[in-house]
Amino acid sequence: MTLESELKKIKMEETILLVNARKKKPSFIDEKLEEYIPEDLESTLKSVFELAFRKIFSDGTKIIAATFDKDKPEEAEDMIKKSRIAGMVDTGITFVEGTGLGILGVGVPDIPVFAAMVLRNVYQIAATYGFSYDDKTEQIYILKLIKGALAKGKDAEALSDQVDEYANKIDVLGYRHNLWIDQEMEDAANALADSMLYMKFIQTIPVVGAVGGLSNASVIRKISKYADVKYHKRMILRKMAMEDTTDEE
To answer: Taking the model in full, what pTM does it have?
Structure first.
């Protein structure tokens, strides 16, 4: 498969993701639960997610990275297979984590574990496509990915464009970011909190809370697929740019 045809294929996958995101509407469960959600739950979720990101990016990335194989296969097809298998495995682990804590009637305390699982999965996808994940420039990209993956309606396309623009800024223009990344962590935390608000409320209810694990699995599956598509496209564009440079020489 040529790079051009591979790019065309991955852009089609990306279009499908965006079309589905634009069509996304509040679920029946969300609408029924809305009046019962405690006023402070959403702000609490956002705060805990943000604190989790801050802690992981400060001193947890190396620990997370030690839990997976960072060797990269040579062929793009192998990269795709490996990254998608990683997504399925982590989805299963997250489901177990979520349902177990849900049965205990715990909704918020498992957030740091879940945030670590989200980042672990994206880190491994990044590594399999040949990208780093342990500096602030790439961490901003990852946070933008998370926000874009969970976007709905018209926001989905705008945020997808922002993710691509930032990737181009890094890979083509050589942009590096050395300052702290508070705003990006806050944005990603807000996106996760908004996506998981209703199921996290359910997860605070003993026994019934086991359903909360389904929400965890759904969110990580969505982020995994989005990251897979974006990193795949980024890899192809980088290879095409290298080919153009070689031709010019």
So the answer is: 0.80
